[in-house]
Amino acid sequence: VLASWFQPVAHCGGDWWSAQPLTEQEGLVVLGDVTGHGAPSAIITGAVKGACDLARMGMRGSLWPSQLLRMLNRVIHESARGEYMMTGVAVRVTAGGGRGAIANAGHRPPLLVRGGQVAVMQGQRDPPLGSTEAHNYAQQEFDVTPGDLLVLYTDGVPEAEGSDGAELGE
């Protein structure tokens, strides 16, 4: 089951997410945040989303998070020429539980809620996408059990202001 909430600060920008099936039992969730705001960030976002879809359609069940981030890094590096980067996280999960895989490109780590307990998924945070010409992104596996809740979010959540005007923070 997938649930999402998206509220952009402006009409266009660099935050985006995608969830797509890879096989009948496995899916890929990708969340990204391109630096900057406005039309330039939105253009890079569109290019990255298109590259993500193309990789998924071409590779299906053989696509893993680390591979996808390596490809997206190249797309951003070549198209943005160092002016823009993207933090992002890619997660592959299996319906009904089993093993999951995650790769993180400088993004805030997801939260795993299991049995009412919240844990930060402390894996390796590799460099943001587009910051280097080539990088082999690390991938960690994790157990998925029925009822787990995986929470991915961009900086808009901890940077949102509470009723007192202060940022919510981590």
What's this model, at a glance?
By secondary structure, this protein is an alpha+beta fold. Helices cover 22% and strands 29% of the residues.
Question: Descriptors for this entry?
Answer:
3-stranded antiparallel β-sheet, 29% strand, 22% helix, alpha+beta, globular, 2 helices, 170 residues
Describe the structure.
With 170 residues, this protein is an alpha+beta fold. 22% of the residues lie in helices and 29% in strands. The protein is built from 2 helices and 8 strands, in the order ββααββββββ. The protein has helices at 39-59, 65-80; strands spanning 15-21, 26-34, 86-94, 98-105, 111-114, 117-120, 140-144, 149-151. A 5-stranded antiparallel β-sheet has the order 1-2-3-4-7, with helices on one face. A 3-stranded antiparallel β-sheet has the order 6-5-8, with no helix packed on it. Helix 1 (39-59) packs antiparallel against helix 2. The protein starts with 14 loop residues before the first strand and ends in a 19-residue tail after the last strand. 31% of the residues are buried. The mean pLDDT is 89.
Largest sheet: 5 strands, antiparallel
Looking at the chains present, what oligomeric state does this protein adopt? single chain
Helix percent reads 10-25%
Strand order of the largest sheet: 1-2-3-4-7
Backbone CA Rg: 16 Å
In the predicted model, the low-confidence regions spanning at least 5 consecutive residues are none
Shape: globular
H/E element string? EEHHEEEEEE
- Report the total helices: 2
Number of strands: 8
What structural class is derived from the secondary structure elements? alpha+beta
Whole-number average pLDDT? Answer: 89
Strand content: 25-35%
For the termini, the CA-CA separation is 25 Å
